[in-house]
Amino acid sequence: MSEAAQVPFSETKAPEAPDRLHRGALGLIDISASTMANIGPAYSFYFAFGLIVTTAGIAAPLTIIAAIVAIALLANTLSQFSRAHPSTGGFITFVGKTFGGTSAVTTALLCGAGYIIAISSVLVISGGFLSMMLQYYVNWNVPWIVFSVLLTAGAVMMMVRGVAVSTRLAGFFFGFEMLVLVVVSIAALVKNGGHLSGAPFEPKHINNGFSGLAAGFPLAVYLFIGWENSAALAEETGNPRRNVPRAVFMSVALMGITYLLVAYSTVSGFHDNGPALAAAPIPFISVAHGIVGWLAFLAYLAGMTSTVGVLIAAVNSQCRLVFNAGREGLLPRWIGRVHPVRRTPVNAIFAFIAIAGIIVLGWAIGHWAGGSTGALSALNYFDESGTMGTILILVVYFLANLALPFYYRKYRPAEFSPVKHLVLPVLGMFAIGVPVYYLCKPGQASPYDWFPYAALVIVAVSVVYATLLTRRDAGLGERVGSIVADE
Q: Does residue 13 belong to any structural domain of this protein?
């Protein structure tokens, strides 16, 4: 008997709705490549590693190891849910099936807000990085907003055309960036062979001991944001109960190994000089420049393709969470409509991008009104929006870990494992608590000091809205997770 046939009666679903995505369009390699393209190792590492070194020192690779452990714990949670109930709704469905309609709507709003704020940083940095590259090589001084609009429009066109086309394009970009990262890293290790040491992996080289490690930990976790991509593609994936968990663990493992290689080669390329590394705008490209000029050019190209790949892969997966919430009535139903021919969630794609654009516009107006127009740089917005979005996303991760043991005890008690369904998710909640604390602790510089309060407001508004909606719509709780990916 297949796994699908073993789903308990309490989880049987309504007949197939007309607004289904293109089922079976993707395979294991497709969703794995899309997940890693969403993570965007070049994009994430280029703009975050210098900040990690600022907090943790040259032993920054140790923070990456800690982040790998934390993400692996989360991967267990996502995999266990996906084996039992594969759904395009991802964390929204998993939390909602466990705790009811109010929690589903709340999670949908938190997911939507967190991912849209985070994706707005990608919209900005895609144009910002291309602007930096052209200014460096051909001395063109074109505002980043022009390139951001053009690249976003091109990415949207690809996503509307179809999930297979856009996913494979993102996968192609990912393959190129991985090749460049590995080649430059190995070249850096060869060139700096006389300066190689174990210092980057020695705890004594962490700034301020455990507090330095913990302070760099949120940034290291940010390197992996997007690891959950494959779950949202479950409906379009063949055999999602098997392939989604495999894609999750494959992606986390390969990205972890890649980050450790690239981090070690970068620290070694700066001869273990932490202050110099932290002061470099993009440390990895500085290392590539120190080897040979054409490698630096390839590193720039890898950063560009990585950013566009993240834009395509992230919107592809994250808008599907919003789409599914609209399809089930957790959000306005017009969001849950698909293209009649291509079976792509066009309304969700356009809504996702439009709201992200409005957030960017509001940020720009805020800086102008406050007289700080000098801070209107793509890199500055990347840091600010990435931090704000990550706080909300981490809250959703925490809720998913909390839900797992209750879900299995409620729906699959015969399969309940104390280790997989209790111990590991509890450890995952502790692991998530560390970055949440350091992102929210008092005494941070503006505007980071008010981000925790903004997050609390979003949570409070989401709970109130969810409560009112579930009171008005008595059947909402029954619709959560009503469309199973392989049924």
A: no
162 conformational bin, left if phi > 0, alpha if psi -120 to 50, beta if neither = left
**Ordered DSSP codes for 433-473:** HHHHHHHH-SSPPTTGGGHHHHHHHHHHHHHHHHHHHHHH-
Structural tokens at position 153: 């429009």
Q: Is residue 16 included in any domain, yes or no? A: no
- CATH number for the domain spanning 326: value is 1.20.1740.10
C-beta separation of 388 from 362 below 8 A: no
User: What Å distances lie between residue 81 and 110, 164, 230, 431, CA to CA?
Assistant: 19, 24, 13, 19
Residues written for the chain: 487
Top-ranked range on mean pLDDT: pick from 314-328, 438-452, 458-472: 458-472
* Parent domain of 317: 24-479
- pLDDT per residue over 197-215, tens digit each? 999 999 999 988 888 888 8
Q: How many domains does the chain have?
A: 1
Q: Residue 45, CB half-sphere, CA atoms under 13 Å: how many? A: 33
DSSP-assigned states of every residue in 43-91: HHHHHHHHHHHHHHGGGHHHHHHHHHHHHHHHHHHHHHHHHH---TTTH
Selection from 181, 322, 251, 179 nearest residue 31 by Cα: 251
Would you tell me the crossing angle of helices 378-411 and 101-138 to the nearest 10 degrees?
A: 150
- Give a yes or no: residue 18 inside a domain: no
At 400-416, the pLDDT tens digits run 999 999 999 999 999 99
In one-letter notation, the amino acid at residue 469 is L
70 touches 206 (CB < 8 A): no
- Are the C-beta atoms of residues 160 and 349 closer than 8 Å to each other? yes
Question: What is the DSSP code (8-state) at residue 420?
Answer: I
Helices (H), 292-443: 293-327, 346-369, 378-411, 418, 424-440
The span from the CA of 200 to the CA of 217, in Å, is 15
- The set of residues, in sequence order, having a beta carbon less than 8 Å from that of 75 and lying 6+ positions away, is 227, 248, 249, 252
Residue 5 lies in a domain: no
